[in-house]
Amino acid sequence: MGETRNVEGYKFAFKQRVRYQHVDVQGIVYHARYIDFLEGGRMEYFRNIGITSKNMIEKGYDFVNVEIHCYYKKPAHLDEVILINTKLSWIRNSSFCFEYVLQEQESGNILVTANSLHVMVDSHTYRARRIPDQYRELFRQFEGDTLTEYGLEAL
C-alpha cells in the first residue's frame, strides 16, 4: 500500500476520472497530464468560491503560472478516480500560491503533491497588478485562518 495522508486543511477537492487521453502505452498517467489535473483543481476551486475565468477577464484581470513543482509518489491508472485536493496557501500583493494533494479515491493513496505560483496580471497588457480586494475577501472567507497574507501592510 502506498503513502496515504490526512488532507486536513484542504477544504476543496475536485474529482477527475483517468481517461484514455491521460495515459501512456503502459496504462499509467503520463507525467505531464498531472499539470492538467492541477489546473482542473485550481479552476474548479475558483469557480467554487465564485470566480470564473470569463468574469475575471471581462473585469480586466487574468493570472499566469510562473512556477509549478510536482512530486510524483505513485502512478495513477486508467479509469481510477483522482481526488485533486486544492488550497490557496498564501497571497501577496499580486502573487499567490496553491498547494495540491492528488489521491486515488478508493485507496486514499497519495499520487502527487504539488504547488504552483501565480501572478495576477492585467488581461490586456499582461503586466502584474494587485489582486483585487473582492477576490482577497473570497479567499479569506473560504480558507479562513489557514491563508497566509504577506506584504499587505504596505498596501
Give the arrangement of secondary structure elements.
Layout: E1 12-17, H1 33-49, H2 53-58, E2 61-72, E3 81-91, E4 95-104, E5 110-122, H3 133-143, E6 148-149
Parallel strand pairs: 3-6
Antiparallel strand pairs: 1-3, 2-5, 3-4, 4-5
Write a short abstract of this structure.
With 155 residues, the chain is an alpha+beta fold.
Written description of the protein model:
There is one protein chain. By secondary structure, the chain is of the alpha+beta class. The chain has a single domain, classed as Hotdog Thioesterase (Thiol Ester Dehydrase, Chain A, Roll). Helix content is 22%, strand content 35%. It contains three helices and six strands; from the N terminus they run E-H-H-E-E-E-E-H-E. It has helices at residues 33-49, 53-58, 133-143; strands at residues 12-17, 61-72, 81-91, 95-104, 110-122, 148-149. Strands 1, 2, 3, 4, 5 and 6 form a six-stranded mixed β-sheet that branches. Strand 3 (81-91) and strand 4 (95-104) form a beta hairpin. The longest helix is centred in the N-terminal third of the chain and has 17 residues, at 33-49. The chain is globular and about 45 Å long. The model has no long low-confidence stretch (mean pLDDT 92).
